[in-house]
Amino acid sequence: MANGSTIQRNHKDTVFHDLFSDKRNALSLYNALNGTDYEDTDGLEIVTLSDAIYMHGKNDVSVLFQNQMALWEHQSTLNYNMPLRGLIYYAHNIDGILEAKGVKLYGKRLIKIPAPDYYVFYNGQEKAPDRQELKLSDAFLVPKEGYEWTAHMLNINADTSRSLLKQCPALEGYVALVQYVREYQKAGGSLSEAMDKAIDRCVREGMLKEYLLKRKSEVMLMLLTEFDEEAFAEVMRREGREEGREEGREEGREEGREEGREEGEERVYRLYSKLMEEKRAGDLEQAIQDKEFRNMLYERYGL
């Protein structure tokens, strides 16, 4: 039986991850961040760890290029724990690279590793500075010199990010896509309608055109999980609690409640996966909001 971490890891598939796992888009973003103009993607490697290796300790995109490891993370909510998370991401990535190469750290010889460069791209609706340098040392219980890790957090909603966005069309298109979805939602449309209109608008305006035309269904599903993340997470918690209470009553023990909670979460996840696989964005949105409809789908799929 899958556990909670399995649910979370599959829920992490996002448009940002999908876009910048493409080497051309990754190189464009690297150039925009570093003021460079590299054109050849042959020397660039996407090294984001698979979910099967690290379910929790992985970021959206990791890129190995020019003896550096660029780690990029998208955030729609403010999180001041990003330096610690970034350090964990980097350590897991380095661990994976060394293991793949069969490198051991027990000898006398100094092992050289790629230098880190960690960026967090924030596009939430809460106000934030244009740029923040978040320091790991701010989290130390007592001051300790000589130990530091920095997360460069960029507010890609901010006007000062326009030059960065212009240098990276994929990032500009992503920001516009999210902005348009929010606009259409505020105008009173359903999330599915808002996503559909936002994608069509980006295509008309020439932003992410090829990507969106090829992968519209997949993009809508990824956007749906991003925009409805809180609602979906609450459904999993609620279904898990209900199943846990029922299982606990039947078996009269704490273990029964815990097993029931996991089974409830797993059932929601399996339904979610079925609808994702069949590209039924409208049904997925309704299932998140409507318990009776969700129960009907459970029965239909034998869950």
Q: How would you briefly describe this protein structure?
A:
The chain has 12 helices and 6 strands. With 303 residues, it is of the alpha/beta class.
What report would you give on this structure?
The chain is of the alpha/beta class and 303 residues long. It folds into three domains: 4-165, no CATH class; 168-215; 231-301, no CATH class. Helices cover 56% and strands 11% of the residues. It contains twelve helices and six strands. The chain has helices spanning 4-10, 15-20, 23-34, 82-101, 162-167, 169-186, 191-204, 209-227, 229-251, 254-277, 281-289, 291-301, and strands at 45-46, 61-65, 68-75, 115-122, 131-135, 150-155. Strands 1-2-3-4-6-5 form a six-stranded mixed sheet, sandwiched between helices. Helix 6 crosses helix 7 (191-204) and helix 7 packs antiparallel against helix 8 (209-227). Mean pLDDT is 83; it is low at 1-12 and 51-57.
